[in-house]
Every structure is written in structure tokens, then in C-alpha cells.
Design a protein that fits this description.
The complex is a heterodimer of chains A (528) and B (434). By secondary structure, chain A is an all-alpha fold. Among the domains of chain A are: 289-430, no CATH class; 436-514, 2-Layer Sandwich (Alpha-Beta Plaits). Chain A contains 22 helices and four strands. In chain A, the strands form two sheets. A two-stranded antiparallel ribbon of chain A has the order 1-2. A two-stranded antiparallel sheet of chain A has the order 3-4. In chain A, strand 1 (382-383) and strand 2 (386-387) form a beta hairpin. Chain A is flat, with a radius of gyration of 25 Å. Chain B has 434 residues and is of the alpha/beta class. Chain B folds into three domains: 5-109 and 245-313, FAD/NAD(P)-binding domain, CATH 3.50.50; 123-242, FAD/NAD(P)-binding domain (3-Layer(bba) Sandwich); 325-433, Enolase-like, domain 1 (2-Layer Sandwich). A five-stranded parallel β-sheet of chain B has the order 3-2-1-7-19. In chain B, strand 5 and strand 6 form a beta hairpin. In chain B, helix 1 packs parallel to helix 7. Chain B is globular. Chain B starts with a strand and ends with a helix. Classes of the chains: A mainly alpha (528), B alpha/beta (434). At the A-B interface, helix 1, helix 7, helix 19, helix 21 and strand 4 of A face helix 1, helix 2, helix 4, helix 7 and strand 21 of B. Chain B: Keywords: FAD, Flavoprotein. Chain B: Pfam families: Pyr_redox_2 (PF07992). Chain B: This is Nitrite reductase, NAD(P)H subunit NirB.
Chain lengths: 528, 434
């Protein structure tokens, strides 16, 4: 046996669950099995009792499991045996779970009728099981999205409790987890459902989650939604304006102050799921340089795609006399805005950019050219020979469904919990660009105290090689950092700290390793 | 400068830091020789592999392609002797390996004090990759290892205890001092850690020495005997962790002047021209300040590497470590120290101690009575900023200034409770009553 192979799985160590862990897992799975069985059209009556029972059993199972797993231990980092467990070390159970989740997403997105969604007439199966719950909240029958939303919220709140137990020594982690649980339960789940109660014959609002900001919700400015906003009078117009302001004004300000973490690991639903249900898989992210390269290309391509797609979709319906904003005016203003951002970046922030600059520059350039091309070529609603609607549905399929759902969550147990956030999310890319350029946020290293142990890098869900910075005493200002703070939590020497400070001196490429005499450090820095 | 071939024995933090910095500064040919592992790994993190926090690959701070890309040659071989007259190394394979300049950075090995049975199967230190592999054989789980005994109340001992505890192996920890690490820590902190060790169900035996280790029929450890009480403890594994000593047996025939370690001057030169020593195996002829002449600390190894790189690239420098600092983690409690805190205040000095009611956080400051000049701080469970303490020590700040501005040195994560007020109040109170 050699450690090179992988000592940690040869250890024949206590992977087995204890009795209480087995019982609690069984309880949770029993709750899930009620849903599964109703998927096979076993009629549980009365439904409201069974759906409640099912959800309560899932919650209780997770709660109990967390208590017996962490409750008896002293407060502190508890990653013991993570790499011995089949589920968390890409073993047999990881692949099984990955297949189950992936299968669930495929059915959900593409074959909702399999779980009982009926477009005309009564729902059957799982969707029908959730009908009474949906009736109680929004007054409507359930859809597959209601089922999904309920399960999603259950996962965040349930595994949020597990997270709280595991990290109960750490107030940053506790507050952050309360925050994602709150935003998921309130803003992403209950408020939109309750809002749809207001809808009637003369008044109709689209399903609106305030914290789901364009371009993450790439469909926010589609015609049907914009029409609904406008038809809903002042409230609707308010929401529409909020949607625009949130991306142009609100997010840049918050990102300036706190880094993109205020969104990605305190508010966002995708981030919320990753941090709670996905916490057990955070160490599986790929830290290699090549994956970093892939990440930068992919994520920027998605941004370009979403900008062109949204612009084309909006342009395609603005190009009538129906709205006060004309298609041409819209295109020109988008192009101008992008040009201003691009110029400002290049003139004032050049030295703060390295690789990101290239990708962002290429992206902007492509977008501006296509916009101008669109406008002057006379191709009304065609972009690169595609109808705007085709482009939109392609984006919806490839990015919205496959990337963010099937791959992003389905592959948690294989590639880690932030695959989508890291490689695909256009919102994360834009916030990351802002974070790199003008945020006060950084992770600092405590002088010369790093021992290069690698806990920080291993547990970074975004695949950042934190150690590479820390062992040089460099601040970490990577655009992909979501500020989850786990690196600082797992560091056995307390070397890392998430800070919001003045932007001056945030990016220091010098090696500052205290402990040596000052002259030597000057020399080391000069010769870099 | 003509291209020289610099050969470094040892690929630990000292040797690797040296190699990296030479590469930054020059185009010299560099070879790192080690028999322990092909690539540099972080020794400090070995424990996390056994605990299942990380896998072996996570221990390597650089991707495997790094060395080739930076033109640092790697040779996996065991050096059996140094022939400085011919400027070549004798490798165990029989090969003679030439060098222009030689750096000895071969680190330490575990201390053994001649206990009967100390070389039995199942008796180990915890220092190298091979030790860890061996540990995996002898103590893989609680079925194969029904009890482990650890001898030595220092940093490696408690890490080993923590490791075994994660696999639910019952551990007895024999500590010679009256409290854990009491030869370094003042009583208050040592007791605090005593409690924390016991909270993790470790059978901590204080003021207890090992008498002998006995074997079963096939030469494996069977039991140990305690000197003070004569008690015999059955066990399947014995960890010997009473510190480390330089791993320099292979140099005995080399003519390089040795004591406990390889003797070096302030420029890290040995008695032989063109041969240097850094890290755990180097012994200063004159100790620097309060530092021991052999510093087996990760950070000092790194600093020596940085210093010697300058010397070897035409800018001769003395090894001048700045203010002392160190850190560790005892189970769940983080520890940092800046400046000097001794287990008893030195002549003309006194101390100030504050402990939180939960018994898991404390600070301990020592300072000069007459002038009030701050000499050092121990902190447990509260993270403090290195930079600020470094400055205070340089500026010879007084204890009043330190206590008053303690907040500016806080390095705890956001939203953590802070204890400066409480500490300040206690300090004021102490001043009044003494």
C-alpha cells in the first residue's frame, strides 16, 4: 500500500453509520418514499395529511441525523472521515445519488407528465400529492415547479439545519446559513406563491422572486413577462423597474461594499442549495490550473450568450410602436452602456486586471459588434441567423435546464456543489468581474503564519487554490470567490480572514511573509 | 555568473523554499534529492490524511508539473554519505552524484531515549510519509488497535492523539510534565489544554514516564509499563513523540562539523566551504536571542530557505529571523504566540492572564515590570494579527498600549464575539489590586 494511491480509502475505517444515524436516515428516506410511491399512482388519501407527513419525516430525519452526528461532539471543524465515505469520496453511493438526482432533473424538466403533471384536467401522481399544499399557499393546483420549489426549499432548510449544527462554533457561518434559509423560504418560495393569490381577472403578475436577478433569471425581460408587468399597473411597473435597477445599480453597490458574497452565499437560491445540501460535496471541486482555465472561458461565454440573447429577445418585441422605447434606441443604449463599461475598465482599471481582462474584453467586443451588426444589417429579429425565440429556447435548454439543473445539481456528488456557479452562472461572472475591479472585499493572510497544509484549497467549493496565495502572504481577490468563508473556518492556524476594507492596497502581488528581518523581505519583493 | 549545480538534500519546506527562491533569482541548475517522496508535500498536514480530511494529493502545494516548468530537477534517492573533497554524494544505489554547492536540508527524525522495546513493530514516531503509512498498518481502526499509547506531551503527541481519536481508537497520553506542554506553556494554558484533551476522551496521564515496551511472540508491541506506578497497559500501538532531533547520521563520515545538528554560522555555512545547512537539521553555533540553537519549526525552515537563496545568488546574508512567532491547534483550540512567553516570567518580568468563562479562550501576556515593555503574548481561541504584534514588538510598545489597542490586532472572522472589553477590564482590575 502506498499513500500515493490513496491511503485514505484503504484505512478500513468507521464508515458505517451508527444505529441512530441509520434510523434517522431511514425516517427521512421513508418520507421521500411516500413521494416516490405516489409517483407510481398509489393514492394516498387524504393528500394533505400524506404530503405533510412526508415533508415532516424528511425534516425530522435530517434534524435527527444532524443531532446524532454532531451534537455529542465538541464545537469545531468536523471533517473527519470525509474521504473515507463512499458518498463523499466519489464512491459507489456518490454515483448512485448522482444518477438519482440527474434522473429527477431530466424528468422534471422534460417529462413532467411522468410525475403526474396534467395540462388539462386533474393532476395525478406526485404533483397531485402536492395539490393541497399548493392550494393552501397560492390557491392554485400544483405544477411540477411547485413540487420542485417545495423540495428545493425543504433541502435548503433541512440541510441548513445540518450545516448550522456542523459549524455551530462559527458565527459567520451561522448567520450566512440563516440568511440563505430565510431568502429561500421567504423570497424564493412563499412570497411569489402568495403574490399569485393577488392575481385575478383584471390583474396578473408574473411569478416573481425578488432576489432572482437577471441574468440568472434570463427570462425576466421576455415579452409575456413585460406585458404582464405593464398590464398590472403601478405594482407591475415597479417590479419591472426594480428588475432593471437590481442589475444596474443595486448589485454593483452591494458588491462594491461586500464582494459578490452578499449574493452568492447569503441570498442566491443556487448558492443556498450548494451551501446546505451541497456542503458534503464541497471538497470535490477540481483545483487544477486547467479547470481554472476552462472556468474562465466557459463562464464568460455564457455571459456573452445571455447578453446577446436577452438583447435580441427584447429588441424583437420593441421593434413595434407598442412601447415608448423603440428597438433602435434600445440597441444603441445597450451598445453605449457596454462601451462605457469597457472603456472605463480599460482606462482606469487596467492594472487590476489580468486574465479576466482578456475574456471580458473579448466578450464585450463580440457583444457590441453583434449589436451593431444587428442594428444595421436590417435583420430585424435574427441574430446569427437565429430567431430571437430560437436563441432563447436554446439558452433555456442548454444553460437553464442542462447546465444549472441536470449537471449543476445532479452532479454534486461527483464534481462538487458549485459546478454551475463556477462554470456557468452569468450572474456570478458579472458580479465576479465587479468584485475583481472595484470591491472592498478580499481575503487576507495573517502575516507569515501559513503552513501550506492545504485545508483551505481542499475545502474551497469554487476550486480556488487558496493555499497558493496564502503561503505567499498574498491577498485573495479572485473573481470566482463567493466568500463562503469556509477556507477561513477550516484553517488550523487561523491564517485567513474575509475582510471589507479600503480598496487601496487590496491587490498586493508582493510576498509579505512576516518573521524575517525587513531588509530580506524587501529584497525578496524586489526580485520577484 | 557561471552556471553552478546546486544540490539540495531534502525536499521539505526549507529545501523547497530555497529552490524556489534560487530559481526566481538565477538560472543555476538545481537538484532536489529526497527518498521520502517524489514531490514536496506539506508535512504539517500529514495528520489530515489519516483523519480523512484530505487525500495525499491535497498535501502537495504545487502541481506535479511545477518542478519541470521551473527547471528544478527532482531525484528520488537516499543519500548515504557526502564526500566533500570530491564534491559528490554517495547514493544508496551506489551512484555517485556530483555537485558544485551542497545544501543539507534533511530535517529531523523522532527522538528516542533508549527505552526497552522502542524499536518493536507498532512503535512509531510521526514525522515522515513512511511513518504515516506505517501508522495506517498498525492502527487502521479500533478493531485492529484496541488501545494506543502516546509518549510525549508536545505538539506531535497531541496531534497523534487527535488523529487516533477520529478513528475511535482509545488513547492514553503519557506526559512527563505536571501539565500538557508545561515546559513551554505557563500553568494556566497548560491546564486549559489538559481539560480540552480530556474532553476528547483521551486518557491523559500527567507526570508519568514510560519504563518499557513489551512485545508479543512475533515482535509486535503488546503492552507498556509505566515507571511511576508500575502499571502495565496493554496496547497495540505506541507513538513516541518526545520531540525530534536532526536526521544527520549519514553525515558522520563526511568531515563536516557536527554537534546535535550540522553546525552553521549566521550565514548558514557549515565548516566546509560550499556546503550549507538549513531547517531542522541546522544548529547555530551561537543561539539567536532566546531561540534554541536548533529550531525545528516550519516557519524558521522557510525563513532559512529564503535567506540562503540570497546568499547563493551572490548576495550574502545572515539568517536574521525577526520576532518569534508560532502557532498550533490543539483539537479544536487554535493557539498563536508572538514574542516570548515563558512558562515562568523571566527575571524582572511579570504576566497578565485572562481566561473566558467557557474555559476555551485565553490570552497570556508577559511584560517588563519597570518599563512596562511588552514581551510576548499567548492566545488560545482568539485569532490575532501577526503584523500588528510584529510592529508592537519592534516599537517596544508597552503593555498598556497593547491592551488598549488590542482590538486593532483582532483577526477573528466577521460577526465573532470580541473580548477586548473584558480583557481590558480585567487588566485594569489587576493593576489596581497589585
Amino acid at each position: 500500500m502506498s499513500v500515493d494511491v490513496n491511503m485514505s480509502v484503504t484505512g478500513n475505517s468507521p464508515e458505517a453509520l451508527n444505529v441512530q444515524q441509520k434510523l434517522s436516515s431511514a425516517l427521512g428516506l421513508l418520507g421521500v418514499s411516500i413521494m416516490v410511491l405516489s409517483g407510481f399512482n398509489i393514492q394516498f388519501q387524504p393528500k394533505i395529511v400524506w404530503v405533510s407527513l412526508s415533508l415532516i419525516m424528511v425534516f425530522a430525519g435530517i434534524f435527527w441525523y444532524s443531532k446524532v452526528s454532531y451534537g455529542h461532539m465538541t464545537e469545531g471543524i468536523k471533517n473527519d472521515r470525509v474521504y473515507f465515505k463512499s458518498l463523499t469520496n466519489r464512491g459507489f453511493w456518490a454515483y448512485i445519488l448522482g444518477l438519482v438526482l440527474t434522473g429527477f432533473y431530466i424528468v422534471l424538466y422534460f417529462y413532467p407528465s411522468w410525475i403526474g403533471l396534467s395540462s388539462d384536467g386533474e393532476n395525478t401522481g406526485v404533483v397531485a400529492l402536492f395539490d393541497p399544499l399548493s392550494q393552501a399557499i397560492s390557491g392554485n393546483a400544483a405544477s411540477q415547479w411547485f413540487v420542485y420549489g417545495t423540495l428545493y426549499t425543504t433541502a435548503i432548510v433541512g440541510f441548513g439545519i445540518k450545516f448550522l449544527w456542523k459549524y455551530r462554533h462559527n458565527r459567520y457561518q451561522r448567520l450566512r446559513t440563516f440568511s440563505v434559509m430565510f431568502f429561500q423560504l421567504g423570497f424564493a418560495f412563499l412570497i411569489p406563491e402568495l403574490m399569485s393569490r393577488l392575481n385575478g381577472d383584471n390583474f396578473s403578475l408574473p411569478y416573481y422572486n425578488f432576489v432572482n436577478i437577471w441574468p440568472l433569471n434570463y427570462y425576466n425581460f421576455e415579452q409575456y413577462r413585460v406585458d404582464q408587468y405593464i398590464n398590472a399597473g403601478n405594482v407591475g411597473i415597479g417590479l419591472l423597474i426594480f428588475g432593471v435597477l437590481s442589475i444596474l445599480i443595486i448589485t454593483p453597490i452591494l458588491t462594491y461594499k461586500y464582494g459578490k458574497r452578499w449574493y452568492c452565499s447569503w441570498v442566491c437560491g443556487c448558492g443556498g442549495l450548494a451551501e446546505t445540501a451541497g456542503d458534503s460535496f464541497r471538497h470535490l471541486s477540481d483545483k487544477s490550473q486547467s479547470s481554472w482555465k476552462l472556468e474562465r472561458w466557459l463562464v464568460h461565454i455564457v455571459v456573452v450568450f445571455v447578453v446577446i440573447m436577452t438583447t435580441a429577445v427584447v429588441y424583437s418585441y420593441l421593434n413595434t410602436d407598442k412601447y415608448w422605447l423603440s428597438g433602435s434606441a434600445f440597441l444603441i443604449s445597450v451598445a453605449s452602456l457596454l462601451t462605457i463599461v469597457f472603456t472605463w475598465t480599460m482606462v482606469y482599471k487596467r492594472e487590476e486586471l489580468q486574465n479576466d481582462a482578456k475574456y471580458a474584453a473579448i466578450g464585450f467586443f463580440v457583444v457590441i459588434l453583434s449589436l451593431l451588426g444587428l442594428h444595421f444589417s436590417g435583420l430585424i429579429d435574427k441574430v446569427f441567423l437565429f430567431e430571437a425565440e430560437t436563441l432563447r429556447s436554446t439558452y433555456g435548454f442548454v444553460i437553464g435546464a442542462i447546465f444549472s439543473g441536470v449537471v449543476g445539481v445532479g452532479f454534486y456528488p461527483i464534481f462538487g456543489n458549485r459546478v454551475w456557479c463556477r462554470f456557468g452562472c452569468p450572474m456570478a461572472a458579472i458580479l465576479g468581474f465587479q468584485q475583481r475591479l472595484f470591491s472592498k472585499f478580499r481575503i487576507t493572510t495573517n502575516g507569515g503564519q501559513c503552513i501550506s497544509c492545504g485545508n483551505c484549497t481542499t475545502y474551497c467549493e469554487m476550486g480556488i487554490d487558496v493555499r497558493a496565495y496564502a503561503q505567499k502572504g498574498e491577498n485573495i481577490v479572485r473573481s470566482s470567490c463567493v466568500g463562503c468563508g469556509i477556507c477561513a473556518s477550516v484553517c488550523p492556524r487561523g491564517v485567513l480572514k474575509l475582510e471589507n476594507d479600503t480598496p487601496v492596497g487590496r491587490i498586493n502581488s508582493k510576498e509579505i511573509l512576516l518573521g524575517n528581518d525587513v531588509d530580506l523581505m524587501d529584497l525578496v519583493n524586489q526580485n520577484k | 555568473m557561471k552556471q553552478e549545480h546546486i544540490v539540495i538534500i531534502g525536499n521539505g519546506i526549507s529545501g523547497v523554499t530555497l529552490a524556489r527562491h534560487i530559481r526566481k533569482l538565477s538560472n543555476q541548475r538545481i537538484t532536489l534529492i529526497s527518498s521520502e517522496s517524489e514531490h514536496f508535500f506539506s508535512r504539517t498536514a500529514l495528520m489530515y490524511v489519516y483523519m480523512g480530511h484530505m487525500k495525499w494529493n491535497h498535501l502537495k502545494p504545487y502541481e506535479d508539473g511545477f518542478w519541470k516548468k521551473n527547471k528544478i530537477d527532482i531525484k528520488q534517492a537516499y543519500v548515504s554519505a557526502v564526500d566533500h573533497k570530491n564534491k559528490e554524494l554517495q547514493l544508496e544505489s551506489g551512484e555517485a552524484f556530483p555537485y558544485d554547492k551542497l545544501v543539507i536540508a534533511c530535517g529531523s527524525k523522532s527522538n528516542k531515549f533508549g527505552w526497552p522495546g522502542q524499536d518493536l513493530k507498532g512503535v512509531l514516531g510521526l514525522y515522515s510519509k513512511q511513518d504515516l503509512e506505517s501508522l495506517e498498518v498498525h492502527a487502521p481502526n479500533k478493531e485492529a488497535c484496541k488501545r494506543a499509547v502516546i509518549v510525549g506531551g508536545g505538539l506531535i503527541g497531541i496531534e497523534l492523539a487527535e488523529m487516533l481519536a477520529t478513528r475511535n481508537i482509545p488513547v492514553t497520553l503519557l506526559v512527563r510534565e505536571s501539565h500538557f506542554w508545561n515546559n513551554v506553556l505557563p500553568d494556566e494554558e497548560a491546564k486549559l489544554i489538559d481539560r480540552h484533551i480530556r474532553e476528547h476522551h483521551i486518557d491523559l496521564r500527567l507526570e508519568t514516564n514510560l519504563e518499557e515496551i513489551s512485545a508479543d511472540d512475533i515482535g509486535r508491541v503488546k503492552a507498556i509499563k509505566i515507571k511511576e506506578t508500575g502499571e502495565v497497559l496493554e496496547c497495540d500501538f505506541v507513538g513516541l513523540t518526545p520531540g525530534v532531533l536532526p536526521n544527520i547520521d549519514f553525515l558522520k563520515s563526511s568531515g563536516i562539523e557536527l554537534n546535535r545538528g550540522v553546525l552553521v554560522n549566521r550565514n548558514l555555512e557549515t565548516s566546509v566551504e560550499g556546503v550549507y545547512a538549513i531547517g531542522d537539521c541546522a544548529e547555530q553555533r551561537q543561539p539567536i536571542g532566546n531561540r534554541p540553537s536548533i529550531e525545528a519549526v516550519w516557519y524558521t525552515g522557510r525563513m532559512m530557505g529564503e535567506t540562503l537563496a540570497q546568499t547563493l545568488c551572490g548576495n550574502p546574508r545572515e539568517y536574521k529571523p525577526g520576532h518569534w512567532f508560532n502557532s498550533a491547534k490543539f483539537f479544536d483550540i487554535e493557539y498563536q504566540t508572538y514574542g516570548w512567553v515563558f512558562n515562568q516570567p523571566k527575571e524582572g518580568q511579570t504576566d497578565f492572564y485572562w481566561e473566558h468563562t467557557d474555559g476555551k479562550k485565553c490570552i497570556h501576556i508577559q511584560y517588563e515590570i519597570e518599563s512596562g515593555i511588552f514581551k510576548g503574548i499567548n492566545t488560545f481561541g482568539i485569532r490575532l494579527r501577526h503584523e500588528v504584534f510584529d510592529r508592537w514588538l519592534t516599537e517596544k510598545a508597552t503593555v498598556d498600549e497593547v491592551i488598549k489597542n488590542l482590538k486593532s490586532a483582532n483577526f477573528d472572522p466577521e460577526f465573532f464575539k470580541s473580548y477586548e472589553k473584558e480583557i481590558q477590564n480585567k487588566f485594569q482590575h489587576t493593576l489596581k489590586t497589585t
